Amino acid sequence: MKIEYDTAYDLLNIEFLEDVPIDDSLEVDGIVIDYAKDKRIVAIEVLDASKRTTRKPLDLIDLAIVKSSRSDAVHEDNVAYRRKKKNRAKRARS
Fold it and tell me: What total number of domains does the chain contain?
């Protein structure tokens, strides 16, 4: 994932999938969601970012990234998304 801020255009871009062509885009209230042909989200753009987030969007660089430890969390594996398989082995009860 890559997060960029363009000061000239006041655009905050969060890119999830690098080098994946954008097939379609949807804009809702100044938020643009870019989709790949298979409907995965490629990027999210925030137009007029300094008005919608903070006056200095570069301050957002200090982000907390939290990985989910849930067994049903969606993750990327060889470009395709799928759910983790549940461990079918029975655990010994304590």
Answer: 1
